[in-house]
Design brief:
With 206 residues, the chain is of the alpha/beta class. The protein has six helices and eight strands; from the N terminus they run ααββββαβαβαββα. It is elongated, with a radius of gyration of 26 Å.
């Protein structure tokens, strides 16, 4: 039997509360699914956020990233969409970093400070590779890495293809490459300025 007009029973109040709860749960679920889809899409296609093209690699020999293998020709763009290429015919250091990696930020800051002070003048070209983008974490990458103060060129590894080729395990990782394009040493982790110079000197003597 229905209640008199204007007189709401406890059962009806309970039913209304349940309907409100169901609507809230549905709303939260839909929002959660939407965010998951967006996050997944951006995680697979970070270029939608970085607005950069994928790097291009041509040639190379041997297992990627291993000592005595020859790196391919690598070209791409920085976060300002300016073209950047890894130099050939002279010693090069590839420093692979991630924008969310605190150790990477510390290494970049150390090199930038040393360069500004005139105490770090490497005898090889240093090219930074920014890879493995995580949308919305320490974003945007150019600010997270303080690139305005970094005096070395950077290639955006938008699709992480460079990291995949190099079989990258951790960041930062340093690849010391001689004038023939051959990787002579791989170092994972942070390095002091003196250690960087020592490794470069070893490569340039070969």
């Amino acid at each position: 039997m229905s209640s008199p007009r204007g007189d709401v029973t406890e059962a009806e109040r309970t039913m209304r509360r349940r309907r409100i709860v169901v609507r809230i749960v549905l709303f939260v679920t839909i929002i959660g699914l939407g965010l998951a889809v967006v996050s997944g899409t951006l995680g697979m296609k970070p270029g939608l956020l970085t607005h950069t093209d994928d790097p291009i690699m041509v040639g190379g020999s041997g297992p990627g990233g291993e000592v005595n293998s020859v790196i391919p020709s690598i070209s791409g763009v920085n976060y300002a969409n300016q073209p950047v290429s890894v130099p050939t015919g002279r010693p090069v250091v590839l420093l692979v970093v991630a924008h969310w990696c605190e150790y990477c930020k510390a290494d970049l800051a150390l090199m930038s400070q040393g360069h500004a002070a005139g105490t770090f003048r490497p005898k090889a070209d240093i090219v930074i590779v920014s890879t493995r983008h995580l949308p919305f974490l320490s974003w945007p990458p150019s600010e997270a890495l303080s690139l305005d103060s970094v005096p070395f060129p950077l290639i955006v590894d938008t699709d992480s293809s460079i990291a995949t080729y190099l079989a990258l395990r951790v960041t930062p990782t340093w690849y010391f490459i001689d004038r023939t394009g051959t990787i002579r040493k791989v170092v994972a982790g942070t390095l002091s300025l003196a250690e960087i110079d020592d490794e470069i000197n070893a490569v340039t003597r070969e």
